[in-house]
Amino acid sequence: MELVGTKNAHNLISVDTDGRLCVWSLQMLGSPTETLDLKRGNKEVCVECIAFTENEVNSLVLGSEDGSIMQANIHGNKPGVYDVHDSHGGAITSLRFHPAPAEPNQRDYTDLLLSTSVDWTIKLWSAK
Question: Where do the WD repeats start and stop (predicted)?
Fold first, then answer.
């Protein structure tokens, strides 16, 4: 689950091992405002975790039960999974992007993604 949005509007994004991504409005948590069934080809994706880069509301990465990291879009011409990386030997338990620098003159590492898995590894990835 991730809270994403701008200074004035926030959404809650949730995923489940059934392959469904839900977008929730914080003002209306009774039911999702949008749903997206995530697939890898024709097969459902069992998602364990998600991560967004700071200030991003559309593109995200997904950690799956089969050890792959997937890139996806929530909106646009082709919402859903658009790239898959076989990354770990077991389910991915967490994903986290490096935060944006606090000061403008600091080095930017926001392209770095950390992943952890039940295969007992922690991996650092670069989106560049």
Answer: 85-128
Q: How far apart are the C-alpha atoms of 7 and 25, rounded to whole Å?
A: 15
Do residues 15 and 21 make contact, with C-beta atoms less than 8 angstroms apart? yes
Q: What is the pLDDT of residues 77-101, one digit of tens each?
A: 889 999 999 999 999 999 999 988 8
Candidates 3.40.50.300, 3.20.10.10, 2.130.10.10, 3.40.50.1370; CATH matching 2-126: 2.130.10.10
What's the pTM? 0.84
What is the largest distance, in Å, between two alpha-carbon atoms of the chain? 46
Q: Which of 21, 19, 1, 3 is nearest to 11 (CA)?
A: 3
Rounded Cα distance, 51 and 61, in Å: 5
